[in-house]
Structure formats: structure tokens, C-alpha cells
Amino acid sequence: MDNRINRPTPSDREVDWNKTKVLLSKTDTKGTILYANEAFIDVSGYDEHELIGQPHNIIRHPDMPKVIFKFLWDSIKSSENIHVVIKNMSKTGRYYWVVTEFKIIADTDGEIAGYFGTRKSVPEELIVKFIEPLYKKLLHIEQVSGQGASEDYLIGFLEERKKTYMEYIDHLIATGKDDKNKISKGLFSGLFEKKTAQKK
């Protein structure tokens, strides 16, 4: 039996949802959805049986640059919890923005058994002013020059601000500003530290 879901056509309209709700999901190591709470199901527009057993990218929006997911997977595969801002797409094609924290679920032997995602809404002004323009630029670079070029641009963007991706997101949410002159004590780690070292 083929239980694949047909991909919807993206709409420029936002999902009308209760942004005080927290969207929860659990996946296995391959990203297959094992559990989704009621709020997640409601926002996605899918029925529960349409989500369970499906790859998590069922809700991926085509506006998302691939480099953000590369950073995400490189981090969690290195046993690092991480949070990222993601534009998702519902079954109707409407979009919704969330900041998603991914936590690693380990088995009794300490091996990664899966991931737990907690999603909260992101202030619209931060999306419009900072996140969306950055993601559009990254996506355009990917389409023209490939994912490697998009990754190089993101590294430079973050180096200019002396922040990791997570520090940049946290700073935006905390202050509502993209302050290039504020220097963070945080150092680059994971993907960005490795990539930068390769360039030396």
C-alpha cells in the first residue's frame, strides 16, 4: 500500500493558528514521525494517521534553504541539541514560522534513538525584517551557485556578527535587533568551526 502524501502547492497565506501553543513531535533517527501532539497536528492541517510514519519533511516549505537543514543535522548527529528558525508548510499549502528546539533522545546504551522537537512561534517582525531576507538570499545563492556557496555566505554572515547561528537567533528574539557591532563571547563550533578550519 502506498501511503505517501501528495505535496501541496505553496500559498502566500499564513496558517491561522494559536501562537501561544507549543508544537511537539518525536522522530526516529531517520526523521520519521513517531508522535505529534494535538497542536502540531492542528497547525499542520494533516490528520494524525497522515503524519505518523511519514518523514518529517512532509511539512518542509520550499522557501527553506537546504544549508539550514545541513547545519541542523550536522549538529544533532554530533550529539548537540540545537534550535533553528524554520518555515513550515501545512497540508493546505499555507506557511507557518517556528523556532524549533531539537533534543536528542538516547537509549540505555547512550546511543541516539531519536529526536524530540519543541516548536514555538516567532515574532512576525523578526521574520519580516531579519530571517526571511537572510533565508531568501541563502536560497537564491543555492539555486545559482550551489549549497556550498550558500554555506560560505552564511558562515561569513555569522562571522561578521561574531555569533554562532543559535546565538544570532537568540539575540534577535531577545533584543529584536541585528547588531553587528556587539561581540559575543561564543566561539564557532560544529559545522562552522570545521568549515573555517578547512579554509586556513
TrEMBL record:
A Pfam short name: PAS_3
InterPro entries (UniProt xref): PAS, PAS-like_dom_sf, PAS_fold_3
Domain PAS stretches: 28-79
Name this polypeptide is given: PAS domain-containing protein
